[in-house]
Amino acid sequence: MSFAPLLDNLPLQKSRLLQRFEELVSPKTDAELEVMARKSRVLTLQNFGRTMRLFAPLYLSNECINNCRYCGFSRDNPILRVTLSIDQVIAEGRYLASEGFRQSLLVAGGHPEFVSQTYLADCVRALAPEFSSISIEVGPMETPEYVPIVEAGAEGLVVYQETYDREIYTQMHTSGPKRDFNWRLDCPVRGYDAGFRRIGIGALFGLAPWEQEAIGLAAHVEYLLRRCWQAQITVSLPRLRPAAREFKPVFSMSDRELAQLICAFRIAFPQVGIVLSTRERAALRDALISLGVTMMSAGSHTEPGGYTGQGVNEVHRTVRGRIQAPEFHNGEDILATGQFEISDERTPTEIADVLRRRGLEPVWKDWDPALLSS
Ligand code: SF4
Q1: How far is the CA of 47 from the centre of ligand 1 (A)?
Q2: Cα of 29 to ligand 1 centre, how many Å?
Q3: 135 phi and psi, to 5 degrees?
Q4: Which of 5, 154, 175, 238 ranks highest by number of CB atoms within 10 Å?
Q5: Ligand 1, atom 5, residue with closest C-alpha
Q6: Cβ–Cβ under 8 Å, residues 139 and 179
Q7: CA–CA distance, 69 with 284 (Å, rounded to integer)
Q8: Widest CA span of the chain, in angstroms?
Q9: pLDDT at 242
Q10: Alpha-carbon distance 264 to 60, whole Å?
């Protein structure tokens, strides 16, 4: 059964767990929030120990056939674009591996011509020697299209619904296949059926009232825990950041509300991973790390080639699917445009030091072959 009817029925029917979650995201006094924070810390410690997994996204391409009002990669944005070659992807991957990362998240805009299943499978295969775990965050596909990517060695699939409000979703996604709400909603299950065993979902906070968004996301988590029971489920709670076209969040979500949301997820779903990205500023990330977060990005770049300058000679604009050379080339390095602005610009080493000072062990990989073979 698809998640869509359950989502549509949420105003009328919620499980006990979702009713509990709804109560957790309702307005709280400072004292009540402190109680939630304490419980959240204890549950995180019990389920994940004193560890924090670190990862960095590796952007493969910023080509896209969709127009999403909040995203710099939108098709009609006149940005500088590039799709890295396999050799360039390897160079970026080796850089990240030299920084210590052993988990990689390959990210690309939605463009089946530039970012085909074959290209993705080749990227995964090429990076496999460098990373113990590879996930992808790309335009949704059908189950058979995912299979070669899984066979190439990818084990994780990340797909954010962006918003669980159908009406707002339609307003935000003005053209392209992403307009199909239900097709995106069922993508995690299609990926699971293809063999992905790490499934990451999330909502982009700022498009709809945060409490309403959170309940939709929690319902999706509850559904996936049952339907995709062999997979590890993670949730991301990104807040909108400025991107090309300067889209502003429609609804605000304060730092306090973000902290409450992290606690609510941890209390309701003790074993689900919670991801915190470099969209948030350094001081806030430091404050949130002990609350319930289990995975952080570090030292991130959101432009293809951003770590090592790969692809600078192929940067172009794409107009109606055709590549056009940029009208400038004055000898400077020109990088493709990033997806959104990063707020925490500290290096992975700096972030690892902060974690250690707070009694947490930074973990650069998700599993250790030595442990598994013992
Ligand atoms: S959010 Fe994704 S699909 Fe939408 S424009 Fe950006 S990259 Fe493309």
Answers
A1: 34
A2: 37
A3: -120, 160
A4: 154
A5: 74
A6: no
A7: 27
A8: 62
A9: 62
A10: 34
Q: How far is the CA of 71 from the centre of ligand 1 (A)?
A: 6
Q: What is the dihedral of CA 264, 265, 267, 269, to 10 degrees?
A: 150
Alpha-carbon distance values, 183 to 75, 142, 233 (Å): 20, 9, 19
Output the ligand 1 site: residues, CB below 6 A. Answer: 64, 66, 68, 71, 73-74, 109-110, 178
Residue matched to tokens 């944005």: 77
170-191 pLDDT, tens digit each: 999 999 999 999 999 999 999 9
**Residue bearing the CA closest to ligand 1, atom 1:** 71
Look at residue 138 in the predicted model and tell me its pLDDT.
97
How large is the average pLDDT for residues 336-360? 87
Cα 362 to ligand 1 centre (Å): 30
Report how far Cα 372 is from the mean position of its chain's Cα atoms.
27
Q: Which of 65, 68, 247 to mutate to test the pocket of ligand 1 (most atoms within 8 A of CB)?
A: 68
Distance 74 CA to ligand 1 centre (A): 6
Q: What is the reported pLDDT for 124?
A: 98
Task: Please check whether residue 55 is in contact with residue 297, taking contact to mean a CB–CB distance below 8 angstroms.
Answer: yes
pLDDT digits (tens, 9 = 90+) for 7-33: 999 999 999 999 999 999 999 999 999
Q: How many residues does the chain have?
A: 374
**Predicted pLDDT at 341:** 74
pLDDT above 70 coverage of the chain, percent = 94
Pocket test for ligand 1, best of 67, 136, 178 (most atoms within 8 A of CB): 178
pLDDT digits (tens, 9 = 90+) for 211-249: 999 999 999 999 999 999 999 999 999 998 765 457 888
**pTM given for the model:** 0.93
**For ligand 1, what atom is nearest to the CA of residue 173?**
4
**What six digits make up the tokens of 241?**
């950041």
67-68/173-175 β-pairing: antiparallel
Atom number in ligand 1 closest to CA 64: 8
Measure 329 CA to ligand 1 centroid, in angstroms: 27
